[in-house]
Amino acid sequence: MCIRDRIWSLKTSEKINELRGVHEGSITHLALSSDNQRVLTTSRDGTVKLVDMRMTSVVMTYRHDAYSNSFEFNKATFGPGENSIIAGGSDGQLFVWNMYTGRMERTIPTEHEGGITSCSLNQITGYLVTADVRGNVFVWN
Q1: Rounded CA separation 40/108 (Å)
Q2: What share of the chain is helix, strand, coil (3-state, %, to 5)?
Q3: Residues 6 or more apart from 71 whose CB is under 8 A from it?
Q4: Which of 30, 32, 73, 106 has its CA 20 to 30 A from that of 16?
Q5: Long-range contacts of 62-66 (CB under 8 A, 24+ apart)
C-alpha cells in the first residue's frame, strides 16, 4: 500500500509536490510547523513522522513500545518552541519526544478515560488542550 501526502497551492489549485511512502498505514492527521517547512504526520501504523518540505522526505520517525494509535483520527502537535512532539495514545497517556533526536523524553499519565484523539498546543500561551474518545477535554499548562 502506498500512503502519500500531497501538497497543493491554494492560490493556483495546482499540486506542488507529492510524498510517497510516508507511512505504512493510513495517515490520520497532518500538522504544519509555524515556519511552513515541516509537516508532522500521525498514522494508524503506530508512528509519528516529521517531514521536511524542502527536502520532501521523512527526517525523523517517533515511536515507543507503549504508543499506539488505533483510531481513524489522531492529532499530534508540535511542543513548546517546536522543539518537541506531543501525541496522545490509545491508552490515555501523552507521549513527548525530542523533535531533533527522536528520543522519548517522557510519558505523561492523564485523567482521560479513554484514548486521546487530539492534542493542540498554543505556542504563545503554552496551553495544551487534549480530547479523548469519551468526549472529555482537558487543558494543561
Answers
A1: 20
A2: 0, 50, 50
A3: 28, 44, 90, 115, 117, 133
A4: 73
A5: 62/87, 62/95, 62/97, 62/102, 62/104, 64/95, 64/97, 64/104, 64/107, 66/91, 66/93, 66/95, 66/107
Question: 0.85 exceeded by the pTM?
Answer: no
**DSSP sequence for 5-71:** EEEE-TTT--EEEEEE-S-SS-EEEEEE-TTSSEEEEEETTS-EEEEETTTTEEEEEE--TT----S
Q: Which residue has the cell 511512502?
A: 21
Burial class (CB in 10 A: 0-12, 13-18, 19+), 141: exposed
Reference 20, options 51, 44, 47; nearest CA is 51
Contact present, 75 and 29 (Cβ < 8 Å): yes
